[in-house]
Design goal:
Chain lengths: 416, 229
């Protein structure tokens, strides 16, 4: 075996350009895989976080009817407790369940502010400020002022929204809204904070106000439109569902719909599917690069036919000739994959700090996605791409190697 | 007992739908230590006969007995084993491995047998390279050697494992007469010193002069045979 390794290694240098091109093809494919995985991972991870923070939680509890009316911001199908328990008691019970770390209530409704030119529509969220700070990354996005505090008639809103209504932090604004009883009313708020975010939802649409203030204005005492549950591990969310459903069933909460974050958004399901599809694309990419290696090796076998005949005459068995050529293919696979994994790692590491600005592409798409995507640099991505490159390329080199091993020695020796 | 015995050996190649007979029934015995030349015109079947004796090809009919054992029913792996341990080959176009040095090319043949230590191998290869006059050129690659030097490396490679039989297919065809003579003298010396059996195929009258047995082949059959003392 040592003899074969020695010859295979030396053979790599027989035609440096050809070997170089083959190595480059494998390296390029592996580099693209490392980078694409990093990019997809960065995109998926940040998108999952955004959906969890601002839409689905780990588990979302809503009224069954509300699911259909969510877009209309209906206040007729709220979460208002159970048969013999109010919302506050229900929240306490939920928080006490195994694996549930926090219960985040939100009361979402439509509102508007009238300026001299137009009526600016907005999405008002009645929230528990402290819980929002603990659960989401909103604190990072507040560029001026602070989060709203309970008991006060105050709001926090995005810079784009502030521009539209021509107001600043510290000023007051009057908003109009429709109550749960469909009456049209108005209220004046202090603007206590400004959000500066890449996310259009936070920058242009949402207005945060204290939950108790929102409940008072809308006549929805101890009611919310949704409860978001935060669990210990988002990947194990499904494990916490049985006890949760059991609790709701036993307490007459059959009208409530319980959704995990994966079920809660079709975009997340789409992303998950795309991750699976990308795995096939990675294999396909390496296969493409392998074609270059196969082509190179077929040429090598053709060129060295007489040499193969001579080796066979000296007593080298078919299996040894197969091994000799597979070793040569594997060496190209290992060197190419290693180079590609390192190059991909360096590229991803660099871009993980700089990011890609996709804002133009996402402008008119209604998805919760950070328009600046930061690829994730992970050693495991490099390792996976390296192993995939080595495995697929080495395996495909069987094709030319078998051809060499099957050569008839007398015919091979006649070849010029 | 003859080292090689051929009984009614026939070989027919199929070229499309046409059957082309290359050997039409050869009966022959080669004794150990013989220095035999097979000669004849192009297409007479010399190389085919050498390939049959060298376990590189299988006959269509007849029997080949090598060292007392019939090889007719052996599979490719078993034939490779016989070549590896008992046969040496010298080719017209040298067929050295270009990425290996002269030393490594010779060493290649005994590394396949794997019964010597590294030190033993080194001593054996160097001593044989000295014998063929290439002691100083052991570290050169084939592209740094002349035709005669390459063929001497090939001779050393064929002899290094001390085979029972060396088959040489037109070994001097690419060499000038002076170099041919040098190479032939080396082979004759090895034949006498080591009692190695040589079978040549050739057109070259110079080669025939060295042989102690001449076999002429025409149209796939032995047409004449001559022994010399």
């Amino acid at each position: 075996m040592k003899l074969l390794i020695n010859i295979a290694f030396k053979n790599l240098f027989r035609n440096k350009l050809r070997t170089g091109v083959s190595i480059l093809a494998v390296a390029f494919a592996v580099m693209v895989i490392v980078f694409t995985r990093g990019l997809l991972d960065g995109m998926v991870d940040s998108t999952y976080s955004l959906y969890i923070h601002y839409d689905t939680g780990h588990i979302k509890i809503i009224d069954e009817e509300y699911q259909q009316k969510q877009k209309l911001l209906s206040l007729n199908y709220t979460v208002n407790g159970l048969e013999n328990k109010g919302l506050t008691e229900m929240q306490e019970d939920l928080a006490a369940l195994d694996g549930i770390e926090m219960v985040v209530p939100r009361l979402k409704f439509g509102s508007a502010v009238s300026t001299e030119e137009e009526l600016v529509k907005m999405l008002s969220w009645g929230v528990d400020g402290e819980k929002e700070l603990a659960f989401t990354n909103i604190e990072r996005e507040i560029s001026e002022g602070r989060m709203v505090e309970s008991g006060k008639r105050e709001i926090l809103m995005g810079s784009e929204l502030l521009n539209k209504i021509d107001k600043n932090v510290g000023e007051r604004v009057t908003m109009v809204y429709t109550t749960a009883f469909s009456s049209f009313q108005g209220a004046t708020f202090d603007i206590v904070g400004k959000i500066e975010s890449n996310l259009p939802l936070l920058n242009e649409d949402v207005v945060f106000m204290p939950l108790d203030t929102a409940q008072e204005l809308l006549y929805l005492d101890d009611e919310v439109t949704e409860l978001l549950l935060v669990t210990e591990d988002r990947n194990l969310t499904a494990n916490y569902l049985p006890q949760l459903k059991n609790y709701l069933n036993q307490n007459g909460g059959n009208q409530y719909l319980v959704q995990t974050w994966r079920e809660g958004s079709s975009f997340i399901q789409l992303l998950e599917m795309s991750e699976v599809i990308y795995n096939f694309i990675y294999v396909f990419l390496v296969l493409l690069a392998s074609i270059v290696v196969i082509n190179t090796m077929v040429m090598i076998v053709k060129e060295r036919t007489q040499e193969i005949g001579m080796m066979s005459a000296l007593g080298l068995k078919g299996s040894e000739i197969l091994r000799l050529f597979m070793l040569e293919g594997s060496a190209i696979a290992v060197i190419g994959s290693f180079t590609g994994a390192i190059a991909g790692g360096i590229l991803t590491y660099y871009l993980s700090g700089v990011g890609f600005d996709y804002s133009a592409a996402f402008q008119d798409i209604d998805v919760l996605m950070n328009p600046i995507i930061y690829p994730t640099f992970k050693f495991e991505h490099m390792l996976m791409a390296f192993l995939l490159g080595v495995f697929v390329t080495a395996l495909t080199s069987i094709i030319p190697a078998r051809r060499a091993a099957k050569l008839n020695p007398t015919e091979a020796l006649r070849e010029i | 007992m003859a080292l090689v015995k051929l009984v009614g050996l026939k070989k027919t190649y199929q070229q499309g739908k046409i059957a082309v007979p290359a050997l039409r029934g050869i009966d022959m015995e080669i004794e150990s230590g013989e220095f035999t030349t097979i000669f004849g015109p192009s297409g007479s079947g010399k190389t085919t006969l050498l390939n049959m004796i060298g376990c590189l090809d299988k006959s269509t009919a007849g029997e080949i007995i090598f060292d007392g054992h019939s090889i007719n029913n052996l599979n490719n792996k078993e034939l490779a084993e016989i070549r590896r341990h008992n046969l040496g080959f010298i080719f017209q176009s040298y067929n050295l491995i270009p990425v290996l040095t002269a030393f490594e090319n010779v060493e290649f043949a005994i590394r396949l047998i794997d019964k010597h230590s590294k030190k033993e191998r080194r001593e054996k290869v160097m001593s044989l390279l000295e014998e063929v006059g290439l002691g100083d050129l052991a570290s050169r690659r084939p592209n740094e050697l002349s035709g005669g030097q390459k063929q001497r490396v090939a001779v050393a490679r064929a002899l290094i494992k001390e085979p029972k039989l060396v088959l040489a297919d037109e070994p001097t065809a690419n060499l000038d007469s002076e170099t041919s003579q040098e190479v032939l003298e080396i082979m004759q010396k090895m034949n006498k010193e080591l009692n190695t059996t040589f079978i040549f195929s050739t057109h070259d009258p110079q080669v025939m002069e060295y042989a102690n047995r001449l076999i002429e082949i025409k149209d796939g059959m032995i047409s004449r045979e001559q022994r010399r003392d």
